[in-house]
Amino acid sequence: MSGAAALAPTSSALLRPIESVPLVGSTRAKVFHALGVKTLGDLLEYFPRDYQFESSELPISQLVDNQIQTVRGEVVAVDYIPSRPRPRFEATLDDGTEKLSLTWFHGAYLRGRIHPGMTVRVQGKVSFFRNIPRMVQAKWEVVDGDTARIEEAKFRPVYPASLRLPSELIQKIVEQNLGDALAEVEEWFDPALLAKRGVLPRREAYRAIHLPKDLNEAMRARRRIIYDELMLMQVGLGISKRLREGRITAPVMRLDKLLDGRIRARFPFALTAAQQNAVWEIARDLGSGKPMNRLLQGDVGSGKTVVALYAMLTGVANRLQAVLLAPTEVLAEQHYLTLGNMLAGSNVSIGLFTGRTKRQKKTTGLKDLASGKLHLAVGTQALIQEDVEFANLGLVVVDEQHKLGVRQRAVLKSKGLAPHYLVMTATPIPRTLALSFFADFDVSVIDALPPGRQPIQTRWLRAGQADTAYAFIRKEVQAGRQAYIVLPQIDDNGLEDSKSVRKEHDRLGKGPLAGLRLAALHGQMKTEEKQEIMTAFRDRQTDVLIATTVIEVGIDVPNATVIVIDNAERFGLSQLHQLRGRVGRGSESSYCLLISDPPNEHTEARLRAMTQTTDGFEIAEMDLKLRGPGEFFGTRQHGLPEFKLADVTNEMELLHQAKEDALALLTEDPRLTHPTHRHLRMALSKQLGDSLALAQIG
Ligand code: ADP
Ligand code: MG
Question: What is the pLDDT of residues 499-521, one digit of tens each?
């Protein structure tokens, strides 16, 4: 949500370019731009990341126990005590009234920087030790006679800053311009609602988040702004849900026993009970006349593809086209092959559309889509562009993306299409997110794997134990099975110290895995080359595939029983889980070996989680906790609203309240035509832009 836009749709101070704001010249404007601040409105929404209490300077003799205080004085002695485990740097400060003792643990870096004779100002919590006041890990700065004393205790914001634009300067600029900006901050909600939730008025919140008189006020301001972020989302979701349930109709797809039998006959196996359930739920939606908006959730390898194919074929039998959108070209190709195999010998025609599809083939393909000659299309999201025409699109399936992009939806809508949507994901949506982002989705869960699967055993090895992994691969290959080795990068670019596919292919072939048939696979290869390598691996002409994460999704070779993930610290938790899902697809026991010397606790937690559970749901919850929702969904590609402040994992209660309030608000004022909601309405249409819901509000 762009700040200025959300706040003020008409021409206003909030839209004033940052370079013309007092105290900001063109040089500072550039830095602001880099921070995402282009207008005064953006600046208003450039929130402090923290607050700092600055106490007035006191004589050392007046310090009291257990309070954060500030003094200045001359350094009269320094000492470095290197004793383990906590080496420390010590200094003594004298201001003429008393002495203050200062300690910094792990303070070796201070040796060259603080020395006797200099005057410093320090701030920290005071404690008394043998009647001598002392500060540990104090904040310090060098001052001289010209440095003004801090006379007044102050509570001030700390902004996300850069070297060229320090927090104090941002604070000064905000302070000077806050009046102009605040004048245009308008209330969104009824006073009664604000009173009920005990939140600050909106304008007051924007003032207080920048200029709070104390931490309490800052936190109240924050709460109001988070409430607004959540409300904006909930009202938006509520409107789009109402629209779908109300006026919009989607093509009715009929399904009977005969058709059901014909579709099933296409699959080389019987559906599991879990798949069967999902199929029923989907079929009910498709026949309802209202657009389906369903999330098909099932762990890696649970068999979502045939469920999607079932839905697509239901469409084809009803003379409607279907498209399947994959997150990457490789996966689109893989789907194209899988579906093609199952449809061999049928009358159903299927086309592949990726960036690599030859121009001429694409032109013909697009023509066939427009005429209806092509029944199914497989591609990446780029397939849905302005220049694509459908004869009769009935269903859009999106694989391993969390939503259809807003843009794609808008394109379809502009063509007057209201297809059914099915979104497939192996990442279970944690409850917190299901409540918020996915509130307008119905959910089907495939909660069991196809029969005969063995649980995957996961081990974590240190880099020094890599040979254990190679020996294990040899053993499995000897037993007639195959292995993957996954690495974080294709080439060594010399900058990073992680292993690469090319180097490892070389090294392993000469050393630890000499004599085995190795192949390398990565995303920069041509489609045909990749396909050859994959086919050779599937046909057991190679033993070990050394690859980047191109194998993350979709690759399906049941005879592969080991996956070694090297430099595992470089992968996210959900990604590791996806990679692990490449094995355990056959009836043999499978293994995942993680090689890593984790650099920090976070990474260690990830690796430990991998060894402790194979449950995708637990993994997702943990991943969300470790990373937060933004990164969890892959930044910016997810089509989800970006929050400036709200962290939905921590704001559960407020989220519940917002959901309840949004519902009540829409019941009372479904089209937001009440004058009280004028500004809410404007903010909403700005935020939702061209997506489905908006156009319908106005
Ligand atoms: P994902 O849910 O990860 O997309 P896929 O659809 O790729 O899973 O299916 C994983 C593997 O399981 C594929 O090899 C597929 O052919 C197989 N499979 C799917 N459903 C069944 C089933 N009912 N019985 C046996 N194998 C199945
Ligand atoms: Mg899949």
Answer: 788 889 999 999 999 999 999 99
- pLDDT for res 541: 96
Residue 519 and residue 420 share a domain? no
Across the range 140-156, mean pLDDT stands at: 82
Nearest CA to ligand 1 atom 10: 301
Residue 94, pLDDT score: 96
Residue nearest to atom 15 of ligand 1 (CA): 303
Residues 569 and 522 in one domain: yes
- Residue 597 is assigned to a structural domain of this protein: yes
Q: Are residues 358 and 262 in the same domain?
A: yes
> Is residue 682, in this structure, part of any structural domain at all?
no
Per-residue pLDDT tens digits for 263-299: 999 999 999 999 999 999 999 999 998 889 898 988 8
Which pLDDT score is estimated for 436?
61
**CA-nearest residue, atom 13 of ligand 1:** 303
Question: Atom 20 in ligand 1: which residue has the minimum CA distance?
Answer: 303
Q: At residue 361, does pLDDT exceed 50?
A: yes
Residue 471 to residue 473: CA distance in whole angstroms: 5
Select from 278, 280, 285 the least CA-distant residue to 424. Answer: 278
Give the CATH number of the domain where residue 539 resides: 3.40.50.300
pLDDT for position 354:
84
Q: Which residues contact 246 (CB under 8 A, 6 or more apart)?
A: none
Q: Is 590 in the pocket of ligand 1 (CB under 6 A)?
A: no
Higher pLDDT, 544 or 653: 544
Please check whether residue 690 is in contact with residue 406, taking contact to mean a CB–CB distance below 8 angstroms: yes
Residue 31 lies in a domain: yes
Q: How far is the CA of 559 from the centre of ligand 1 (A)?
A: 14
Comparing 282 with 652, the larger pLDDT belongs to 282
Mean pLDDT of the chain: 85
Ligand 1 atom nearest residue 400's Cα: 4
Task: Give the pLDDT confidence score for residue 371 in this predicted structure.
Answer: 96
**397 within ligand 1 shell (Cβ under 6 A):** no
Whether the Cβ atoms of residue 189 and residue 680 lie closer than 8 Å to each other: yes
Q: How many helices (H) and strands (E) does the chain have?
A: 24, 21
Q: How far is the CA of 302 from the centre of ligand 1 (A)?
A: 6
- Give yes or no: residues 467 and 567 share one domain: yes
Residues 278, 400 share a domain: yes
What pLDDT is stored for residue 433 in this prediction?
62
Pocket test residue of 263, 453, 555, 556 for ligand 1, highest count of atoms within 8 A of CB: 556
Overall pTM > 0.70: no
Residue nearest to atom 4 of ligand 1 (CA): 304
Evaluate: CB of 5 within 6 angstroms of ligand 1: no
Q: Determine which residue's CA is closest to atom 14 belonging to ligand 1.
A: 556
User: Would the CB of 405 count as within 6 Å of ligand 1?
Assistant: no
Do 42 and 78 lie in a common domain?
no
Ligand 2 midpoint to CA 223 (Å): 40
Mutate to test the pocket of ligand 1, among 302, 310, 401 (most ligand atoms within 8 A of CB): 302
**In this structure, are residues 68 and 124 in contact, taking their beta carbons and an 8 Å threshold?**
yes
Q: What is the CATH number of the domain that holds 130?
A: 2.40.50.140
Query: Domain containing 92: what range?
Result: 56-152
Query: Does 652 score more than 80 pLDDT?
Result: no
Does position 662 have pLDDT exceeding 60, yes or no?
Answer: yes
Strand pairing report for 442-446 and 376-380: unpaired
> How far is residue 233's CA from residue 436's CA, in Å, rounded to a whole number?
8
Count the domains in the chain.
Answer: 4
Ramachandran category for residue 689: left, alpha or beta (phi over 0 → left; psi -120 to 50 → alpha): left
State the distance from the centre of ligand 1 to the C-alpha of 181, rounded, in angstroms.
Answer: 56
* Strands of the 293-298 sheet, one edge to the other: 350-353, 376-380, 321-326, 393-399, 420-425, 293-298, 442-446
Is ligand 1 within 6 A of the CB of residue 426?
yes
If asked whether residues 73 and 98 sit together in one domain, one would say yes
Q: Are residues 146 and 170 in the same domain?
A: no
